Description:
Low-confidence stretches: 94-114
Strand content: under 5%
CATH class of the largest domain: Mainly Alpha
Number of helices: 8
CATH superfamily of the largest domain: RNA polymerase sigma factor, region 2, helix turn helix motif
Mean pLDDT: 79
Number of strands: 0
Shape: globular
Helix content: 55-70%
CATH architecture of the largest domain: Orthogonal Bundle
Distance between the termini: 39 Å
Amino acid sequence: MDTATSDEQLVERxxxxxxxxxxxxxxxxxxxIYALAYGILGREEDARDAAQETxxxxxxxxxxxRGEAKVSSWLHRIAVNQCITRxxxxxxxxxxxxxxxxxxxxxxxxxxxxSSPLKQAEGRERREVVRKAxxxxxxxxxxxxxxxxxxxxxxxxxxxxxxxxxxxxxxxLYTALKxxxxxxxxxxxxxxxx
Length: 194
């Protein structure tokens, strides 16, 4: 498939019945959607399931895509909704993200290889503390911080994705960063090291 083809053009082709076009959308976005889900949910298995459900929902609702937002914003919104649904189910079962067992290998907080085993261990420990702290934030703060700090979306893209005003995105990010800083200090980490 031509990489010069826009996501929006691929959606048009997929709506017209081109199954390969939707496959290309999945190939382009599966890693980012998985990383987003992992950043919010904190478990590989849940993130894989949420990413898969995101693309299933997107495929089922292709004809509803009007092009008012970018395909990326549309997919991010579906993914965030999947994560919220999963979190609600978990809370109904009285589970919280802190009760989940720790999993290694998360791509969300990956860093370049360190020069020594000690630095690698410190890096893993720091990523785990940050992951824990992020997972304790309320969902509306967690989704904003993950989209901004880990997905590198602009404020406007976050507003489009979450369907909230730009000012709300900024205030939630400010609040999230403030709470995250306090949580990291509680864990004994300096915010500047993160």
